[in-house]
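From the shared-data thread, chain only:
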Amino acid sequence: MRVLLVCFLMLNLSSCKSEEPEKRRNFSKVEIETLLQDSLLNVRALEIDGDGIVFATSNGEVGVRSFMLPSVINGIDSIILDEIAIKTIQLKHDSLIPNFRSLAITNKAGFLISISSPSLLYKVDKDSINLVYKETHEKAFYDSMDFWNDQEGIAIGDPTDNCMSIIITRDGGDTWTKLSCDDLPKAREGEAAFAASDTNISIVGDHTWVATGGKASRILYSPDKGKTWEVFDTPIIQGKETTGMYSVDFYDETNGFAIGGDYTKPNDTLNNKIRSIDGGKTWQVVANGKGPGYRSCVQYIPNSNAKKLVAIGFKGIDYSNDAGDTWKHLSDEGFYTIRFLNDSVAYAAGKGSISKLTFRE
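Structure, as tokens:
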């Protein structure tokens, strides 16, 4: 996060995201380098930007790990690991320590939202840390957050009424407004979402897809940055509180993939991986009875023409080079969430650790 990195480490950062022609490589292994290890660490929200990674923890902490050598950092009280600087701060609301599961970044600020009531949304910029939204409701539970641009962003959560909770900002995150259920698809009984990896939302341009889960697991879709919404059914396993989509990712406006299952039955491989080739309107079960069981996060590999995917969860890391039709299990090491730096390097976080993953042929 540019602003969080500036705030913590006084570094000027630039975006690293770019699109290049697909490199035709087939990965057969992954090298895992542990960057931060702590038995108390629990990270489900992770982002990469420029010269660092930003993470948020279940213990109210927001942290930055710089890729730069500490010699360029002056006067910062940082932990030094392998000649790399790590800086964390803990946020509190009165005596409450928030449990952060969602993190979003723009070019101007960073944002964190906690689960449970009261749900607390913080804006962090180079000058201050401000609580910009608070929701006190016994059913309040926010699962994921993302931004369309520097001014407009969205967070989604479980229903407090008869629709999914959706809050939107149009002023750079200074104020947030909760959408009325009159303007959203009605939730089905037992439909909610999972705060498992901060990947319930996928954004491509103005297009937005939200994955729900539980007794009903559907896709909420907006073509216009949250102004209008429709809903599409999916064939993923559903019907119990622990079933459904846990993660969704769209490569472009057409190609999308979602994964999940039932975390209480992590080895089950039936109906837990689905793919769309029409912008989320219809979905097809793939690799049924094969490939990974329950996984909490799936991401397209950059520059892969919507062919290469990595799925991650507490049961390990899996890779597909054919849009999810077949999968190769690369590691038993467990994580909750993953973000790609480029087409062969990613960063993953979970219970007890944050690691760098390098995918090799």
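The domain at 2-17+30-360 is CATH 2.130.10.10 (Methylamine Dehydrogenase; Chain H).
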